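Let us practice reading a record.
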Amino acid sequence: MSYQLALQQLVDSALPTGAFAHSLGFESYIDAGVVRDEAGFGRWLSAFISQQLTYSDGLAIRFLYEGADVLELDSLLSASLLPRQVREASVKMGLRLLEIGAEVFPSAELGLYRDLVTIGRAAGHQPLAFAVVARSLGVPLQEALVAYLFAAATSLTQNAVRAIPLGQNAGQRLLRQAADDVAAAAVRIPHLTPDDFGAVSPGLEISQMRHERQRARMFMS
């Protein structure tokens, strides 16, 4: 249980990674009128968890835990995150997490990844920064996956509460529904193969690309 409090700090919404500034594409659905209420956002969040968070972030975390080279995984993420804003969001939040981790949860593994980023050999993606810190703390893979996925769902829901807008109680109802999707994703991820990496719905990616040219927006992505 020695890692439990550290893990809670690592996934706390108060951790200053800048997640509050990113919608990761759902703002485009708001602009198009597709997402305009609790039910609409719930459908989007379910799709996002079961696709992008499963086949990109979650799978990258699993591969790193299993011993895959962090530099190779970093390159794969840079190549598979096609929308520029989402790729940049992953790096911006990842760099902040590496910076915080170096001060609060230092380790040789974290230092190596941070050095690769500093010399320009790696970008510094958020799921890899998280996985490096979590593994160095001794967090088991399944707990790390569940914590990361639910933290992502939480930050996106908090942003939707502001953007749509939704009530705070609606946000809590959405998170309870998202917990089922997170649990299902954590069960699915261990059975995926390298060929599954980056298998994300084109609809999600197109909405993320459209956000860059949206007339008015609250979020960076």
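A brief commentary: The chain has eleven helices and no strands.
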